[in-house]
Structure formats: structure tokens, C-alpha cells
Amino acid sequence: MIGMGIETSCDETSIGIVRDGKELLSLRIFSQIDMHKPYGGIVPEIASRAHLEKINFLLEEAMEEAKVSFEELSYVAVTSSPGLTGSLMVGAQMARCIHMVYGTPILPVCHLQSHFAVLHLEGVPTEFPVLGLLLSGGNSAIYNLKEFGRMELVGDTMDDALGEAFDKVAGLLDLPYPGGPYIEAKALEYKPAPDEKPVLPPLLRNLPQDQVSFSFSGLKTAVMVLLEKQKNLSKEQICWNFQNSAFDLVERNLKRAVSKTGIRRVFAGGGVLANSTLQKRLQSWAEKNSVELFSPKKKIYCTDNGAMVATLGYYLFQKGYKRDIDFTVSPSRQEIFS
Ligand code: KG4
Question: So where does substrate get bound (predicted)?
């Protein structure tokens, strides 16, 4: 079965085509990063206009690369939530057009779940339940993924998302937007002494022991204070410290989520998983704690892309989900697809 996925929720316009939810036939992505860079963050109006300008070209290229006709598509899946409303509407409208011309069934899908579904393109088998760890520019959360189409929130962020914290700290350090890759590169340049203690305070000391909860705004403020008070610290040292503290919190929350739910299988996804230090830390944590943890091996699958949407669409389509042409898009999370 061949299906298409359309992704326009934020700053990537992307079309992916997959066979049987596991074989990638084509993937086209246009990243708007350079357009948003001068503003240090995503400008929604620029994002939706850029999606509109690019989506037709990407669709044509993806169809050519996959060497399929529209008549061969069994479904068209499209990200319908969460995301920027104007941007989501561009993808939704494209799916509606395909439906109107070719009668292709439409599947509006949850962006967050598609970050977990993408692992099937790298051969990870479907076995539920699974804990879904999502770390991106807009979300830091852990879910209990009962099956595709059904997941429950286990823990969320109280303020910033982890990717957002990377971007803000990069701003404080005069590093370009988006900050994640630049902070990672600087942190890797720092060679700490074997017994070096972190200079940032431990996070969320006062939270109840069983609470799964992220908070990164305090860490950002701590970096700001550090910059003012300890001018002798290098950017590399600050980046190393910031990453360490942030990843400590991720690890601690994952540990709590595992003991709270009893689930020992984790799917990790989202843009921050492109960070190789994080991937290594999570893997070694999982091995030590007898947890099976899967995260995308290819960086292109960490970032937003149409292939993950097509993959999630495959599983939902098989279960009989589909929507009428008047489906809506939503900026907020809709964990339950029903
Ligand atoms: O999932 P994603 O592509 O889209 C949004 O949620 O918008 O995530 C983008 C986020 C940005 O905040 C970016 O700084 C972060 O992922 N990111 C990274 C790395 N690469 C991208 N964070 C840490 N280390 C990286 N190597």
C-alpha cells in the first residue's frame, strides 16, 4: 500500500511517500530556517507564506522521485495538529485538493505521534505500549503510547520546551538560530577535567519524587546569571554545563516515567534528538536500566518531515480511520485521534 504524508506544521514544508508504512519511496523537505534566522525565531506569517510558495514544487518532486501516480495512492495523511494554524491550513488544503481530484481518502494526523511512527522507517517493530519521549522546539513531554491513535500524557513541560531553551541560550551566547546544533558543537569542544563539577544548579530540586515534569526556563536564567557573574567561563564550558543539566533532567524524567508506568520500551523523537551527546546518554542510560530505547538514526527523521506523517497514516488507515473533507486543523495538542 502506498501513501503520502504532508507536513507543514511549523517551519519545514515536506512531502513523503512510503510503501506499507516502512519503505521510503521519496522525501522532499524545504527548511525555512534561513528565512526566520534574522528574527531569532519562527515568524508565523512568514512560515505560512513560504509553505504556500513551496508545497506544489515539493509535491511534484516527491511524486517524480517515488515514480508513482496519484491513482496509486491509497491515502493522503496530513499533519492537522498541533502547529501554527496558518501553516497547518496550507497542508490541509493540499490534502483536500488531492482528495477532490482523485478521491484519495484523507487522514488528518497528530504531529507528535508521527515523531514516534517514523522509527518504523528504520525497522523498529510495532509493539505497544511504549513510552514516547518527545523533545523538540515546541514540546518536551513523555507519553504513554497505547497504540497509534491513542496516547496519554505522562509528563509535560511547565514552561519552555528543550529545543526552545537551546535556542534561547544560544541567543544569550550570540550563537546563531536555531541554537541546538551550535550549542552541541561548542559543548563537544570543551574537555572537562575528570572530576569537574557542574557550575549550574541542580534542576527542580523541590518537585515531588514521583512527578514527571520538565522545566527549562530556570536553567536559561541560570546561564544568564553565570554570564554576568563568571566572565572567565568560556562559551564552550557554558554550553557543556547547559547540556549536562538539561540532559540530567531528561534522564531523571524518563526514569520516573518508567517506574510510574512499568513500561520499559521507549520511542524518542523530535528535533533535539539530532544531538549526538543526548542520543549516547539515553542509550547508555537505557542499557544500564534494562530499558529498550529507540531514537532515529538519521538526523532527517528527527526533524519534521512528510515521511513520518505517511508512516503514521499507514497504521491509522489500516485501522479504518479517515476523515471527511471538512476536517479542522488545531494549534493545540489533540492526543486522542478519534
Ligand atoms: O522537531 P523540530 O525540528 O521542530 C520544531 O519543534 O520546531 O525541532 C527543532 C528544535 C530547535 O529548537 C533546534 O534548536 C533543536 O530542535 N535542535 C537541536 C539540535 N538540532 C536541532 N537541539 C540540540 N542539539 C541539536 N543538535
Answer: 134-138, 167, 180, 184, 275
75 shares a domain with 22:
yes
Looking at the structure, tell me whether residues 182 and 268 fall in a common domain. yes
Supply the CATH number for residue 87's domain.
3.30.420.40
pTM (two decimals): 0.95
206 — pLDDT class (breaks 50, 70, 90): low
Residues 104, 184 within the same domain: no
How confident is the model at residue 338, as a pLDDT? 30
Give domain status of residue 16, yes or no.
yes
Beta bridge partners of 189: none
Report the SS3 class of residue 324.
coil
198 shares its domain with 290: yes
User: 148-173: per-residue pLDDT in tens?
Assistant: 999 999 999 999 999 999 999 999 99
**How far is Cα 329 from Cα 82, in angstroms, rounded to an integer?**
8
Q: Do the domain assignments include residue 194? A: yes
Q: Which residues are annotated as a binding site for Fe cation?
A: 111, 115, 304
For 254-313, how does the pLDDT look when each residue is reduced to its tens digit (9 = 90+)? 999 999 999 999 999 999 999 999 999 999 999 999 999 999 999 999 999 999 999 999
Give the Å distance between the CA of 304 and the centre of ligand 1: 10
Show the domain range for 313.
2-119+301-319
> How many CB atoms lie under 10 A from the CB of residue 332?
8
Ligand 1 centroid to residue 322 C-alpha, Å = 31
Instruction: Compute the C-alpha angle 214/216/221, nearest 5°.
Output: 155
